[in-house]
## 1
Amino acid sequence: MSNYKEITVNALWKQNPGVVQLLGLCPTLAVTTTAVNGISLGLATALVMAASNGTVSPVRKLVPSEIRVPVFILIIAALVSIIDMSINAFAHPLHKVLGIFIPLIVVNCIVLARVESFAAKNTFVPSILDGFMMGIGLTLVLGLLGGMREVIGKGTLFSGLDLVFGPEAKHFVLTVIPDYHGFLLAVLPPGAFLGLGTLIALRNWAEVRNAKKADTPDNSLKPVLNH
Amino acid sequence: MSDTVIKHTSVTALTMVAFALIGTALLAYVFNITREPIEKSEAEARLALFRQILPDDHYYGDPKSKDDDSLLNNVVDIAPNDLLGNKTPSKAYIAKQDHKFAAVILEAIAHDGYSGDIKLLIAIRADGTVSGVRVLTHKETPGLGDYIDIAHGNWIKLFDNESVEKTPAEQWKVKKDGGKFDYMVGATITPRAVVKAVAKALQFYQQNQLLLQQTQIESSPSGLESGHKD
């Protein structure tokens, strides 16, 4: 059980793909112009990562190590195409929203990274959990970054929600700053870099502060353990 | 020694082949079972777009009765044409009023988008004005180039009521290139491709309007070939 907890904490905080591993930045920077876009891409990635980790883990012993990378890429590419076609056929409204993100996931190296570093060495259930939680960790970062850029760039939050939940959801779009004329920099790619940098800095600051807090009372009693 | 090397190599190669075969087989299977539902939902989406660019209800009369003016009954195949950008035969949907040509919906493909083809539906009235343009499918970057899609912005409505008479050929460009069409900073390639495709489709209509207007379509929806230009 503690194993599962560790996987979750790792994915969401210690090894967060967005702000610690810094993997999969290409879609991260391009798509996060709004909170809804960011969260949609994050959830689609979580789905693909859970599926790819879950597929690779059972066959990991059949794959000679020399060809593991091409085989993993083959599995991921096939899987993403299958998910893409299935969503298109059986959940068309969802495909309209997520469809455009799915081809972006194929090139996202975070998927291959987790398959290679986790699913290739671990059993089925922990692998699925790791893939899914890494995806959720990425979703958090994408959602935050998208939200920041949207508020600063356009003065709204959750615009485009109606594309996901139908026209009634238009009422949930928050106008944070009324009569805002927009701040283009935040919406353009440099805004994505600045925003991500801010998030990384905030996370590092919180980490250092936590480490100091944990250190001070124990320092005199026992040697500090570095994780 | 060399025996084990050969054995190891062949096992590795065979594993790779096996995975490739399984992957291909799975993909082929899923492609087959999903093809029909995907085509169906795309046809529905297409009809919804038709109604956006040609809103009059009577263009969509009962498709079962043979001699009505429904554009679903008046489909013409158009051979591959440089102006429309189609490499395989595409369809033109002819809407009629009182059995006379009233408007046509053309499918055009822009190949010079930022990523992949942009498929457009362009409705042109008999007098050569644009009734509306919609993006059918595209793979432009989400959040950047996707504002050409009506779901992400009203940019595509810039073309409403445009025509070759209203806007001279050298003005059919985005503002950055000295034309009259707005674009969003950071994504110029996408609107540039769309503007060009719409201008070329209007050109196609001008060259072929007599053919399109005179076409008497029999009840068979595959229809006859028209608009072929060498």
Note: The first strand of chain A starts at residue 156 and ends at 157.
## 2
Amino acid sequence: MTATSEAATTSRVAAPSADQGRRKVDPTYLVMLLPPVVLFTIFITLPGIVGMFYSITDYAGYGDWKFIGLTNYQAIFSDPRILGAYTFTIGFSFVTVILVNAVALALAIGLNAKIKFKKGLRGTFVLPMVISGIVIAYVFNYLFSTSLPTIAAALGIDALAGSILANPSLAWIGVVIVTAWQAVPGAMIIYLAGLLAIPTDVYEAADVDGASSWRKFTAITLPLMVGYVVINTILGFKNFLNAYDIIVGLTNGGPGTSTFSIAMTIFTGFTSGDYAYQMANAVLFFIVTIAISLFQLELIRRRGVSL
Amino acid sequence: MTTTRTSQDATATTVPAGRPRRPRRRREPKEDYRVNWRLTGLLAAASLAVLLPMYFTITMALKTSQQAASGTGFSLPWPVNLGNFTEAWRLTNFGRAFAISVFISVVAVSGVILLASAAAFAISQNWDRKLFRYSYYYLLGAMFIPFPVIALPQIKFMSIAGLSNPAGVAILHILFQMSFNILLYSAFLRSIPGELIESAHIDGATTAQTFRRLILPLLAPMNATVGIFVFLFSWNDFMMPSLIVANPALQTIPVVQSLFQSQFSANYNIAFASYLMAMAPTVVAYVFAQRWVMSGVTRGAIKG
């Protein structure tokens, strides 16, 4: 239980002296450490293991079951509904991450410039972050399905006269817009923090040399912001791959199944009697999530960005 | 060619150079501060993207059903119909949903602050012990487990354990928010000099006393930001309560909005009054806690 002092050599903490390793650990520390570890094991690890176990059975969520090996996993790859959900969710996450980063960086640069009403504007742009996703989605649902078509019809724009949420090939755009609307503030604040860390001298020097604004942006701002772009990309993917609340309020997966997200397909396992099958889907989703995270971490490592 | 060289030289000499910290430049720029009005206008126009949906929600909430049923919804409500709020309150039983949301967020916030800060303190003080180090990595692992991945078995388990209720939601909120905050607290605690804690020990303080009297006060600004973010997450969450809480009468404010969609159906004015009431608590809290929200996101990003 008590670790040997050999561990102290790898210690990253300033405090512990070499002999502390041999002393008996103060029980108070165990009382502090154990509740999270125990709760975590009961509520997250064990259900996770049980779920993985069921993914190789034909368990329906009730009654008897038997092992069926990897049949569930094989079935997923020929299930258009699940494949569609992966295509939609990953594609939607990709587009939203790009949109959110572009808008957030532009806003942060604007808010960091010599402008009037800085505080008020900043406060306004952060506001969407604090509102519940499903409530925002209901508000935009009305805007997209009633207000926008009415305005478009009055202006004679036929292309937008119907609700974009009722159009299977356009509904995803609505989901992207609302998700971005809510996600921009968080990314923007991170960019603002990054911009504040850039010394103003750098820009002054560039001014002296007569650099254009665009040149200053590409040669100074962007390279110095790469680390923050990486953070925002990772956080963005982490959130968007789990998309649920906003889609439920906006399209509920429709029209048809055109905006059905991975989370939504997994949750159908509660009611549809294919618990084990959706559990296999969940395991696959976990692997995809980890793969995307590792891929991003690898990118970080290559760029030598320190977090 | 020459210009780039000078630019590099200028940067090299002025930026790092390890000069003694000089007074911050141009904090209060009196001269040479030309307001960029074009950009201000541009940003003000962009802020309409946030303000218009807000304006729209408010006007819709103040209309009569006839007004709400016609036009785009952007026209001003006249006469103002405040009755929507009482109607929405009565229909959704807002008072009860509010109490349940408050209960879940309060438990989640205090739970995360207490458990995460204590665990982070224990870990940072015993980093040389394998048990603590591995526990740390184990707990951080949760950051990579999205809720949908374990939702099916977890919710089954919650119902077996008799936790298909707000208390169960609060526990899961604590667990899913804990990892990241243990990371935050640990990063901060590592910056506290070990001598400080040692001297408390020498003065005869027990570990528990050191934590309560020394560490918790030091963590106060941290607790504020952690608290705000756990509150926002917990209060606004739809996914977990909608799946876990079995009894619709015990649902939180966001879930109630979806439960009453069919009742709202044609009465958009009442629906929007309900949405506005659902938004109000966090928006009001935000207005007062704006400063911490900003610094909190930054802190999370830099450390995380």
Note: Chain A touches chain B through 112 residues (CB under 8 Å).
